[in-house]
Design a protein that fits this description.
single chain, mainly alpha, 2 domains, three-stranded antiparallel sheet, two-stranded antiparallel ribbon, 10 helices
């Protein structure tokens, strides 16, 4: 700006020296002075605008330089402390660490102990321990124990007796492996044996058994039905004979029914109709 003012002053001096020769034709000295003042004002305005633009550019440059310098300084300090971690990546690192599978911990395994006997096993064990030395089928043992020889409860009891070494099996019959000291021997009284089975059987079977025993151990089934006042047909009648046959208490040939060796004195093996 100072240089512009100096140049304008120099031009003004030259014009005064020339006696107004530099003024345009037909322009008086007063008019020429006015023109000169306008030119000076315009020159000053142009100089101001140019200086303002240059000042803004210089200011922006200095501002950027200062800002980047501060960032660089902070980054340098952070790196020196070893804590320069981008915040956006921190959760990812944590998630990856959490996703790692945990080591599997094997439990301390203790040697397995024999499973305790269920109620079915205990009932069947009691039956075998009070009728020595009789060997019975599993159906007979279950019936005398008040069970059905089927289903999970019975099968679990049977398995428990076998796995525990409490029984021996041979030829489809089972007996106690080691009788207790106070185990009762098998009865030799036919009436007692009949009573034992009659109390364990269900439906029409007890009546049929007692009547067949009273007739001497053999009779026609129609005759037994007449003696009992029952019809020799239907589910109740047929189920009674089936239960007697399944437990090998009677042997059936056509309409003829005969008691097996079970109620016979001195019977030692419940082999049924084998």
């Amino acid at each position: 700006m100072a240089e512009i003012r100096a140049a304008l002053q120099e031009m003004q001096v030259e014009r005064k020296t020339a006696g107004g020769a530099g003024a345009p034709a037909g322009v008086s000295g007063k008019r020429a002075g006015t023109v000169l003042v306008d030119e000076i004002a315009a020159a000053e305005q142009r100089g101001y605008a140019r200086g303002l633009a240059e000042g803004k550019n210089a200011g922006w440059t200095e501002g950027y330089r200062t800002a980047w310098g501060g960032i660089a300084e902070q980054a340098s300090e952070a790196l020196g402390r070893g804590s320069w971690i981008e915040p956006s990546k921190a959760p990812v690192a944590v998630a990856k660490a959490a996703a790692q599978p945990k080591p599997k911990i094997e439990p301390n395994r203790q040697p397995s102990e024999p499973n305790p006997l269920n109620s079915a096993a205990k009932k069947m064990l009691a039956v075998l321990d009070t009728n020595l030395p009789v060997a019975r089928s599993w159906t007979q043992v279950a019936t005398l124990a008040g069970l059905k020889a089927r289903g999970g409860h019975f099968n679990a009891g049977r398995k428990g007796l076998a796995d525990g070494g409490l029984i021996t099996e041979a030829d489809g019959l089972v007996r106690l492996a080691q009788p207790s000291d106070d185990a009762a021997m098998a009865s030799n009284d036919p009436a007692a044996v009949v009573d034992m089975w009659a109390s364990a059987l269900s439906g029409a079977a007890p009546k049929i058994l007692r009547r067949l025993f009273e007739t001497g151990g053999a009779a026609e089934r129609t005759a037994i039905a007449a003696d009992l006042g029952m019809k020799p047909q239907g589910g109740h009648w047929n189920a009674g004979w089936k239960e007697l046959r399944d437990n090998h208490v009677v042997r059936i040939e056509g309409q003829r029914a005969t008691l097996t060796e079970l109620p016979s004195p001195g019977a030692q093996h419940d082999r049924g109709d084998r």
